[in-house]
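User: Last request for today: this protein with 3,4-dihydroxyphenylalanine, please.
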Amino acid sequence: MNDLDTLRGELMTAIAAANDGDAIEAVRVDALGKKGRVTGLMKTLGAMDAEARKTFGQRLNQLKDEISAALDARKSALATAALDARLAAERTDVTLPVRPEIKGSIHPITQTIDEITAIMGAMGFTVAEGPDVEDDFHNFTALNFPPGHPAREMHDTFFLPTAPDGNRYLLRTHTSPVQIRTMMSAKPPIRVITPGRTYRCDYDMTHTPMFHQVEILVIDTESHMGHLKGCLQEFLRAFFGVDDLPLRFRPSFFPFTEPSAEVDIGCSRSGGELKLGNYGDWLEILGCGMVHPNVIKACGLDPDIYQGFAAGMGVERLAMLKYGIPDLRTFFESDLRWLRHYGFASLEIPSLTGGINP
Ligand code: DAH
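Assistant: Here's the final one, the structure of the complex with 3,4-dihydroxyphenylalanine:
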């Protein structure tokens, strides 16, 4: 009997002295492991008579429970102490004032994506994202660009070397593959926007090899061109802050939409200055259309049941127009003077209630 009390005392002392996870584990193995001391005593029960087995068995079980509980308690005490030590060591004084010389600002690309997200979020859209490195299926085939289709050539694609799995991965040339990923993983009704980086082998005043797009995708059973038009009108008027901004839809072609259209917004270029509004002149702003039945089919949905619309736009172009930035290439030169001039205050996050147009 006393032996058990002695054993308890020894084990409890060892647990109290254990100062890390390894030490706790060593005590556990010593007591409760396959060859542990408590386990060893359990094995002697079989040879006892019924009465002795009952009382000794009960005491042994109780000891086992006490040891387990003490091990757990020690483990969590050590974890709490470690966390407290870390919190104390990593404490940051957030009340320190911002030092003016290191004040950062929000890049116009981030600002523009935040503005688009705020407007579309208020219309019930969520944000979907996909990988920058895509495969041929998501970037082209599922979007109804059959192999060899001439529209593939227009994308100036950056291809990666053929991978060991035989795939020729590429840098996505547009954000449209996120449409495919969304339709293959979510159940309609779908309402998403997909901001992200895109890549094409091109470089001049109006092209950089990396740029940004935002895609709009709606899939349900009854959306039609009228909804597309209303949605884009609402978005463009809120984004540019021009209530009577006129829109013009011109027939166009994209493999993944049918019918397809390009959208122009009203402007004036008189006196060499660009003004947005109802002035009689037009400026192309984005591409859109009703999602092609082949795309819906490629995603495993039934095009006789589901339909919807999509639109795609260039973030840099929207930012240049809204904030009067003349050269696309300057976006990515990391020139501090440019960033200070065109950057936005970091705490003024766009929202419909707080304001989209700083
Ligand atoms: N993916 C097209 C491009 O990069 C843009 C686009 C046009 C996207 C029409 C769409 C759309 O979703 O409906 O050229």
